[in-house]
Amino acid sequence: MEYNVKYAYIMAFNYRIWLKWPPTCRSRSWLDIINRPDLMQALSEFREVVEEVARMRCRNGEWGMPELFDVNGLAVSFEDKQDAARFAQVMAIESEPVELIETVHDDQPSTIV
Questions:
Q1: Domain tally for the chain?
Q2: Can you tell me the distance from the alpha carbon of 2 to that of 5, in angstroms, rounded to the nearest whole number?
């Protein structure tokens, strides 16, 4: 009998930044967003901007964001404190009207992004 064993690298994200969705997408139900292509486009463009900024600013560790929609906003997680600070600084300048909801230090890091 042969076993295929796959190894996974487990990331420990210690810092999480919650960003509010663009104003047109806030306070909407998931059903409203699915039925409106303009809102889906706004969410996609926002995620692309966040991803681009994270890719450019993260130098010391890994980062990640969930694939699933959350009505509260977009959570971006980081391994390194400096990367989280750089990201927050650039997002505050670059992506008007992005608003920072909160920055959280997770005392019990997990693989959940």
A1: 1
A2: 10
**HEC secondary structure over 26-39:** CCCCHHHHHHCHHH
42 domain-assigned? yes
β-pair partners for 110: 13
Residue 4 identity (one-letter amino acid): N
Q: What is the pLDDT along the chain (113 residues), one digit of tens a residue?
A: 555 544 444 456 788 888 888 888 888 888 888 899 999 999 999 999 999 999 998 999 899 998 888 878 888 999 998 999 899 888 877 655 444 555 556 555 554 44
Element (H, E) at 56: helix 37-57
Which two structure tokens, joined as six digits, stand for 38? Answer: 């303009």
